[in-house]
Design brief:
4 helices; 71 residues; mainly alpha
């Protein structure tokens, strides 16, 4: 991720396209997006995690936290 964030982002998106319910990849991707300051992308990814895993507390918490941050 550190060497080529765009390539890493594209790779993760491609993986999630083939398996959108992959919990670990979705969480990892959402965290990386948030760390990179890509709030809207991170929110979108956390919402995907929550869609496929409705009881996921981390996703719900991160969505609430990110919504408090101005875009």
């Amino acid at each position: 991720w550190e060497r080529d964030p765009e390539a890493a982002k594209e790779w993760m998106q491609n993986c999630l396209t083939s398996d959108p319910a992959d919990l670990e990849l979705g969480r990892s991707f959402a965290r990386r997006l948030a760390q990179a300051g890509l709030r809207d992308d991170a929110l979108r990814e956390w919402n995907r995690v929550l869609y496929y895993h409705p009881g996921n507390r981390e996703a719900a918490s991160e969505i609430a936290r990110l919504r408090q941050i101005s875009p």
